[in-house]
Specification:
179 residues, alpha+beta, endopeptidase fold (from Nostoc punctiforme), 6-stranded antiparallel sheet
Length: 179
């Protein structure tokens, strides 16, 4: 089963992300419950941690089951394939540039600049919420989710708050669960 965890931390970077995105969360990871792994991005890059470590290090605010979670569901194996494709991205560097560029992007958006873009986002590196975006791109390729699910977002501008909004809205694919 794949689970998405949205979290925060008592750290200045976490506080700044939550402040500028007006969100309760600043970090996220994709968990493989069957193997007790959580895939997430930190300043060290994309890596996985044991689920217990992730929950000790981060204050998990929301957890969502990615549907299908039933092993008998016809898309279950395709979902597993998408998760394992994510593991191929291990050690991808952290997208520090996109994180820095996120602040002026948010300020310009709030000032009404509709064409504002994150000037430092890159296709070759990831920050935490981009992991979910990438996972959903793989799910689109496997025809697990609708191909328009990400149409309102750009990967390098996809924040943990955007992830929360998307997962709350897309009840067909995400189920909020108790932590």
């Amino acid at each position: 089963m794949v689970k998405i965890h949205l979290a925060k931390r008592n750290h200045i970077t976490s506080w700044l992300i939550r402040y500028f995105t007006k969100s309760k969360v600043s970090h996220m990871g994709i968990g493989d419950i069957d193997r007790n792994l959580v895939l997430h991005a930190t300043s060290a890059g994309l890596h996985y941690s044991h689920t217990n470590y992730f929950f000790k290090k981060y204050d998990v605010v929301y957890s969502f089951n990615f549907i299908p979670s039933d092993t008998l569901h016809p898309y279950y194996l395709k979902t597993r394939k998408c998760f394992f494709k994510m593991l191929e991205l291990l050690e991808t560097p952290y997208d520090t540039g996109a994180l820095i560029g996120f602040i002026p992007y948010i300020i310009l958006k709030k000032m009404g600049y509709k064409k504002a873009r994150n000037p430092f986002g890159s296709e070759n590196v990831l920050f935490c919420s981009e992991i979910l975006y990438k996972f959903l791109e793989y799910c689109i390729e496997e025809e697990i989710v609708r191909d328009d699910i990400l149409s309102s977002y750009k990967r390098e501008e996809f924040s943990p708050e955007d992830a929360l909004v998307l997962m709350t809205k897309e009840k067909e694919y995400f189920e909020l669960c108790k932590i």
